[in-house]
Design a protein that fits this description.
Length: 333
């Protein structure tokens, strides 16, 4: 039976799943990479767009430069779909790794527009370019939020690394420590969660900064599978917590790893999995939910939060259900 806010259903059958929907105050609306569907991803204009709309949390990705600066970037190497070089020309193929460049060198690249004719451009046709935009430092985002006057918005910060490409990033321990140092320097530990598909960094955060909450990302798709439940050798992503030791259950893996928040790809989430996560005391925040039908389905299911490239659409769906909406805080990047 599917829980539907517009249908009459037996209370007992959907009680556990519906709790988060009933307690609308607890819902977490997250702008993915700022508001990627509307403005350049992981940039100050993108985060300003999300703040101006009104979100509970700014979701973002991080890398570490050669000189130890924590910058905001989804890709471990410069992405040719969104990056132009100092000569104004689009990069050809994968660009250099973030960790191979100093922060001063990174500032030479423009990430304010999607390359025309790409699949990325077709997917985000409504994104408005902001030419001249640079890859920001994490501290730049903190400064933008401080300038906005928003003292409540949170930051869900992903460590972007892969056990399959260790040469492209710092080691998990070094990465996590660099991020924690930047967060502590800004006095933002109480407003930050650290998330990752590479659970090795989360293990470091939990050990060295227990005051910082962690979020366990998962995907079980052909294009990304960090759980590897069907592989006898297990997964290199999950910090030695293997699906085979937990009945193939990702919520049980998260609990065993010491997590309190599970963040699955929304297409992997079922009512049964959500119910199991609830029974284990886990919050569930799904990613990346952009289409109206999927947004409505996740809200009606009763997830604790949604990460979306289109937070404006999520707000509309929330308003239609009488849910609390985070206040907009307009700011110029």
């Amino acid at each position: 039976m599917r829980c539907n806010a517009n249908a009459i259903f037996p209370l007992a059958g959907c009680l556990l799943i519906g709790l988060a929907t009933i307690d609308a105050r607890a819902f977490d609306l997250q702008g993915h990479r700022g508001a990627r569907g509307l403005a350049p991803e992981n940039t100050l204009p993108g985060f300003a767009a999300a703040l101006s709309l009104g979100v509970d949390t700014l979701e973002l990705d991080t890398g570490v430069t050669r000189d130890g600066v924590v910058v905001i970037s989804h890709d471990t190497t410069l992405n040719a779909d969104i990056t132009r070089g100092p000569d104004g020309q689009w990069l050809e193929g994968r660009g250099p790794a973030i960790r191979s460049l100093t922060y001063a060198e990174i500032l030479r690249y423009d990430v304010g527009r999607i390359r025309p004719g790409t699949a990325y451009a077709k997917r985000f046709a409504e994104q408005k370019p902001v030419d001249g935009t640079r890859i920001p430092r994490l501290e730049d985002l903190f400064a933008l939020v401080e300038r906005s006057g928003n003292t409540r918005v949170r930051f869900n910060i992903e460590t972007k690394l892969s056990p399959n490409a260790p040469e492209e990033t710092p080691a998990p321990e070094d990465f996590a420590r660099a991020l924690l140092a930047a967060v502590r320097s800004a006095g933002m530990t109480s407003r930050v969660t650290v998330q990752s598909f590479d659970w090795r960094t989360l293990r470091v955060v939990q050990k060295e900064a227990p005051e910082v909450a962690t979020v366990y990302l998962s995907a079980q798709q052909k294009w990304l599978d960090n759980i590897a439940a069907d592989r006898p050798e297990g997964s290199a992503w999950t910090a030695e917590v293997q699906a085979r030791d937990h009945g193939g259950s990702v919520p049980r893996m998260v609990k065993a790893a010491g997590g309190a928040v599970w963040s699955p790809y929304f297409g992997d989430l079922t009512e049964a999995r959500l119910r199991e996560a609830r029974e284990l005391g886990l919050k569930v925040v799904v990613w990346t939910v952009n289409e109206e039908e999927a947004i409505g389905r996740m809200l009606d299911l009763g997830v604790d939060g949604i990460i979306s490239d289109r937070p404006d659409r999520v707000r509309e769906a929330m308003a239609a259900r009488g849910m609390r909406l985070p206040a907009p805080t307009p700011v110029v990047p």
